[in-house]
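Hi everyone, sorry if this is the wrong subforum. Our group has a chain we'd like a structural model of before ordering constructs, and none of us has done structure prediction before. Sequence below.
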Amino acid sequence: MKSLRVTAVSTTLLLAALAGVGTASADTPTAAGILQTGAQKGVADGYPGVIGLVRQGDTTQYVQAGTGNLATGAPADPKAQFRIGSNTKAFTSTVLLQLEAEHRLSLDDTVAKWLPGAIAANGYDGTKITIRELLNHTSGLPDYFGSVQVSGPYALDLNPNQAWAPQTLVDIALASRKPTTAPGQTWSYANTNYVLAGMVITAVTGNSPATEIQNRIIAPLHLTNTTFPTSDPNLYGNYLHGYVHPVTFYTNDVTVSDVQMFGSAGAMVSTLDDLTAFGKALLTGKLLPPAQEAELKTTVPVDGSATTGYGLGIEHVQLPCGQWAWGHNGAVLGYFSTWLSSDDGTKQVAHANNEFHLLSGTAGQSDTGTALANAYCAL
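Answer:
Right subforum, don't worry. Here is the predicted structure as tokens:
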């Protein structure tokens, strides 16, 4: 598997999260046991806490290691909320697929049809980019988070209340470089795509992406521990505190961080239970009719790989054991999470930790990613 490439919410997804996957050892034969060992390794590697879930049919098991709050030492709770980062993207794409099913738009509409002038600078042309190309990351647009103007203050958590208008983030992306590929040709992950997708939702419905996701997904599925904050950077109730400790002598609580930085690309908060319930509903046709379900699962190669494809907000990956799984991951300041699911939703694994400092290739990322894939393969 390829090495992890991280720019906050824009990790290279399952390809990254499962870097270094091996095979399950004989002394950890059960999926839950494998995931538990991985959680313990993650804590030994430096994570404050790691939580996990293994589900097969109607049976769910939870694992945990370490703490969810360094100040109190409270154990990390597998039922706790955390920031899910780019796992938000599947929620955003689902709303657009539902709108297509309602004949309110087509995924082959150009972005300019709904957002005239939004992409019209530095050689980029919204009349040549489709909504589908936003959702599968083949638009050719750069990621605004690559700009120090954006990533610097976020990484330092200088102003959790800083407002970022979606168009401002798009403009920063467009100004960052000229096009390097034509739309539809090459997969390249960019949060800009999903900020624009959220803007399309607003243009079509008159509502914010948060409102549409609440009404169309969160409420109908009874995801009572899932929220889409749009301005308030605080977490409430039972939640994991998020941390960064890029050097051994410094740890900073970054639980309160800027949600407007990512919006429809990565602002949501959820739990392992809710996230996997959503994944199962999405993959098994509970949220989409057959035509849109097929579009959701139509993939493009990730970096030319034959074993990793990106659909519309979800990824399809072949694990070293030979099994295929759908899923995604999310990485924002202080939090890293990943879920995997079989196509029929009968096998699911997920985990989350409460340390992420925007750097790649850590031992914790490798050890917990290995355990996640091995746990799935053991089901």
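For your construct planning: The longest helix spans residues 363-378. Confidence is low (pLDDT under 50) at residues 1-13, 19-26.
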